[in-house]
Amino acid sequence: PPIDEILSLHDFEAVARRTMAKRGWNYYSSGDDDEITMRENHNAYHRVWFRPRILRNVGSVDFSSSILGHKTSMPVYITATALGKLGHPEGEVTLTRAAGKHNIIQMIPTLASCSFDEMVDAAIPNQIQFLQLYVNSDRSRTKKIIKHAAERGVKALFITVDAPQLGRREKDMRTKFEGNASSQQTQGGDNFKRDQGAARAISSFIDPTLNWKDLAELKEAAGEMKIVLKGVQSWEDAVMAAEAGCDGVVLSNHGGRQLDFAPSPLTILPQVVTILKSRGFMTPKAPFEVFIDGGVRRATDVLKAIALGATAVGIGRPMIYAMSTYGEQGVSRAFEILKDEFEMNMRLIGAPTLSDVVPNMVDVSALNSA
Ligand code: FNR
Question: In what residue span(s) does the FMN hydroxy acid dehydrogenase domain sit (predicted)?
Fold first, then answer.
């Protein structure tokens, strides 16, 4: 359909399902095992309700935000998703360009189809980019990547910690992996397995021995870049990350692509934030930011996460579905849709700015009940 018939982020998925090549669709859309966590990621948002306020002068609303000290037009960033060329021949640079136009931060994936430098070169001056990092068993490779990222102006490293082994995504495994993996395939050498889907073909270099003791070394290599752990799934680990000197965590289960029956990030967010604050983190003196991703499809989803203490949320699949069917224009359309949704919904809940989106604007009494 023509792009102006796309009215929500859900629509991009419906169109991608019908139009994408099977290989790409199977890789993008799959979750682990029975995909219970993947579905729950979005469903959890259905159990949080607003407590709208009235008569608050919402003549103009402001949803601009700041992520790790960098201004952005919305409390939303493009999270890392691998293998962009399975969806669009130009790959991830289409995301970069749309992000630049809309002042949105892009998290560059280690396993992108485009090279890291292509994605940095596609950015406009002062466009902020983060790098998602899979830590290689060969640490010298990882350190090289970190050093290069710092030289190219990347502002933060998001170290993925929920994937010591890639999950079983059966839909993807039924597709034989053909062609070139990512430009980063040299990460793992050329001997990747082609017969069990894209995910397994490209991930064999990831180090399963990675542990808390390795953080100091990575932090040191990162220099000025901030460090965020992506894939935290309990308050205990969020506290450990803060105590280890990280700058934040992403509560995430990798879009339901790793452990099935991992909790939806939204369900653990209130507890994580309460406990971090009780330990003195998330304050001006000890700034620590909590992000979440998984199943975010509407500005109302984002506003719920913000009310519960998140700084911003990551959006994955809708971005690559938009890219796959409409290229850069599709990704831009996704941002425009979100902006319209923010404006209307902030008016309707009675929040002129994001700092007005506080815990008592949501009712979470049903969030953690069956
Ligand atoms: C991912 N994700 C991911 N995460 C990561 O740290 N490194 C990676 O290479 C990838 N690759 C990847 C590929 C695809 C196709 C998907 C869908 C996801 C996980 C991603 O960053 C994020 O956690 C989820 O995508 C968020 O969920 P939604 O928005 O897709 O529901």
Answer: 1-367
**Structure tokens belonging to residue 286:** 């000890």
Of 304, 241, 256, which is closest to residue 46 (Cα–Cα)?
304
Give one DSSP letter per residue of 67-136, joined into a string. Answer: ETTEEESSSEEEPP-S-GGGT-TTTTHHHHHHHHHHT-EEEE-TT-SS-HHHHHHTSPTT--EEEEEPPB
> Which residue of 79, 206, 229 sits with most ligand 1 atoms within 8 Å of its CB, as the best mutation to test the pocket?
79
Choose which residue among 23, 257, 291 to substitute to test ligand 1 binding: the one with the highest number of ligand atoms within 8 A of its C-beta. Answer: 257
Q: What pTM was computed for the model?
A: 0.96
Q: What is the pLDDT of residues 297-328, one digit of tens each?
A: 999 999 999 999 999 999 999 999 999 999 99
Residue 37's identity, in one-letter code, is: T
- CA pair distance 82, 283, nearest whole angstrom: 34
Q: What is the token pair recorded at 319?
A: 């971005």
